[in-house]
Specification:
The complex is a heterodimer of chains A (about 350) and B (about 350). With about 350 residues, chain A is mostly helical. Chain A contains 13 helices and two strands; from the N terminus they run H-H-H-H-H-E-E-H-H-H-H-H-H-H-H. Chain A has one domain. Chain B is mainly alpha-helical. Chain B has a domain of about 240 residues. In chain B, about 70% of the residues lie in helices and about 5% in strands. The longest helix of chain B is centred in the last third of the chain and has 28 residues. Chain B is globular. Classes of the chains: A mainly alpha (about 350), B mainly alpha (about 350). At the A-B interface, helix 5, helix 11 and helix 13 of A face helix 6, helix 9, helix 11 and helix 13 of B.
Chain lengths: ~350, ~350
Amino acid sequence: MATKKNGPVIALGVVLGIGFVAPLLAGQPLGFFLEVTLGGLMAGVLYSLVALGFVLIFKASGVFNFAQGAMVLFAALALARLAEWLPGWVGIPAGLPALALAFVLATGIMIVLAMLIERIVLRPLVAQDPVALLMATLGVTFFLDGFGQTIWGSDVYKIDMGISKDPTIILESMFQGGILISKEDLVATVIAAVLVLGLAIFFQKTATGRALRAVADDHQAAQSIGIPLNRIWVIVWAVAGFVALVAGMVWGAKLGVQFSLAQLALKALPVVILGGFTSIPGAILGGLIIGVGEKISEVFLGPVLIKAFDLAGGGIENWFAYVLALLFLMVRPEGLFGEKHIDRV
Amino acid sequence: MFYRENGQFKSTYREDQQILGIRQDRWFIFGLIAFALLVVPYWGSDYMFRAILIPFLIVSLAAIGLNLLVGYCGQISLGHAAFMAIGAYAAYNIVVHFPGLNFIVVLVLAGLVSALVGILFGLPSLQIKGLYLGVATLAAQFFVDWVFARVKWFTNYSSSGGVSTAPVEMFGWTIDTPMEKYVFILVVVMVFTLMAKNLVRGHIGRSWMAMRDMDVAAEVIGIRPMYAKLTAFAVSAFYAGVAGAMWGFLHLGSWEPAAFSINFSLNLLFMIIIGGMGSILGSFIGAAFIVLLPLALSQALPLLNNLGLKVDTAMASHLEFMIFGALIVFFLIVEPLGIARLWAVAKEKLRLWPFPH
C-alpha cells in the first residue's frame, strides 16, 4: 500500500513560502507588500470561482470540462447584453433592476445550455475515455466561443454592478500611504464567499445535493439505488453554468466582458491541478495560492529577472501558474486534496 | 470492380511487408506523387501555392508529429505549437550564427533542438497522463511563448520582438518563388511521411501503440514506458520543430511569437481529431480540412449575403469557430477515428462492389 509521500510537497511549500517572504527580506516596504498580496488574493478568488466549476463537473461526471472558460464568457456576454437590451424591450429602468432581471434570464440560459450539452454531447459519449471527453469539451469550447459572439456580439461590454471603482485606502495609520484596495474586489470576494457557502449548503443539506455527492463517489452504486444519472449531470452542468455566470459577472465588472475572459479562465486549469480535481476546498485554496504567487512573482521577481537576463519586459504571470502546476504534478499528481489514483490491469 | 486484389499473390516476405500492398493503391499513390511533383508546379498559381498548398503541406507535417504522440502513443499535447516555435527560433538562430549552412542541415538541427525540449517537457508524462499531461503541455505552450517574447537573445536583439529571414539558399539554389518553396516542402514532407510510416509499423511504433492501449499492461509485457513515451515526445517534437522552421522560413518569412500561439496548438489537435487519430493519412486529411475551411467560408460569404443573410468577416470567423467545434463533437461521437476511418471503410466496401458479399 502506497503511503502519501509528503516530503517533496513540503519542500515545494517551503520554497514557495521563502519566495513569498523574500521581497520583505529584500527590503520592500511592508505596506506595498501587503497591497500586492491582497491584490493577489482578490485575483485568486476569481480563479477559484472558475476552478469551482471545473471541480463540480469533474466530481459528478468525470469530465474535465475545458469549456468552463467559454461558459464564463458566454454567461458574461449574455448578462451584459441582456442588461443592455432589457430596458428597451420591457421598459424596466436601466442599471441594477435590469441587471437583476438579466441575471435571472442568464441563469435560465445557462440551464438550457446545460441540458443541451448533456443531451447532445455527453450522453452519446458516456463511458468514453477521459481524453476523448476532454476533446469533446474542447469542441464545445470552440462552438460556444463562436456561438456566443455571433448572437451577443464581439465587442467589449460593460457590466455595471453599481459599485464605485474608486480605490479605498485602509490602514493609513499603520503604513505610510496606507494600502490601496478597490471596493469592487471586496464585493467580488463577498459574492464568491456567499456562492461557496450556498454551494456547501446545497451539497450537504438538500436531497439533490446528496444525490450529487453519491454520484461523485460511485456512479454505478448511485445508479443502482435509483439516482437518475442523466438528470444529475444536467443539474451539475447547470450549477457549473451558474457558477460560470457569477464568475463572468464579477470578472466582467472588473475587466469588461470580452474574448480574453475565456483565455483568462484557462488559468483555472493549474488551479485545479494544484488543489486536486475532486476537492472544492482545494479549488479555493489553489486559486488563492496561484493568485498571490502570480502577483508577488510579477511585481517583485519580474524586475529582478528583467535585470538579470536583460528581458524585454515582465509577464511572468502568464506562465507562473502553469509552471507551478507542472512542478506540483511532478511531486504529487493528485493535487493537495485530491484522491490518490491507483492503476490496475 | 476496380479495387480488387484478386490475383495479386504475395510470394516473398518483402512483398508481404511493403507499405502499399495492393497494386491499385500503389498506382494511386505514385500517380498522386507524380502529379504533385510534375504537374502542379507548372499549373498552380502563386496564390494557390502561397495560400493553400504550402500551409497545407507544412501543417500536415506538424499534424503527423502530433499524431505520432497523441494518436499512436496516447499522450495528449495541448501545446504542440510551442515545439514548432522552438524549431522556428532554433533555425533562425542557427542561420544567424552560422550563415551559409545548408538549409537541410538547419532543418535537422532545428528539429533536434525541438526534440530535446520535447523530451524535457515529456518528462512529466512518466508520472502523469491524460488530463494532467494536457495541463503540463499547456505549461510548455505558455512558457515557450513567454521566453520567445521576452528573452532578447532568441530574437537576436531585434527591436520589434519579431524576426525576419532571408530567402533560403542551398546547393547554390535560392528558394524564393512560391513554386520552388512548394517543391522543396513537398520533398521534405514526403521524406518525413515515409519515415513516420516506417516508424509506426516498426518496433518503436508498436511499443507506442501498446502504451496507448494500456500502459500498465504494456509495461508488464516488457515495454519500457520511459523509453516509449520519451521517444514519442522526441520524435513528435522533432517533426513539429522541422515544420515550425519551415513555417517560419518558407511560409511566414518574418514572424512574432504570437504566430505559434495556443490557438495554433488547438488547431493541430483538431486536425488529427477530424482527420483521424493514429493515422498518417488522417493527418493530411485533417490538415487539408482545417486549411481549406476558412478559405471556403470566405468564398461562400458573398453567396450567403446574396441569399439575404447578413454575414460579415467577423461573423465568418465566429462561424468558423462554431463549425470546428460542432465537427469535433460530431466526429468524436460518430467516428472517433476520423475521416481516415471513413476512407478505410469505403475501401472495404469498394473491394466487393457491386456485389453484396
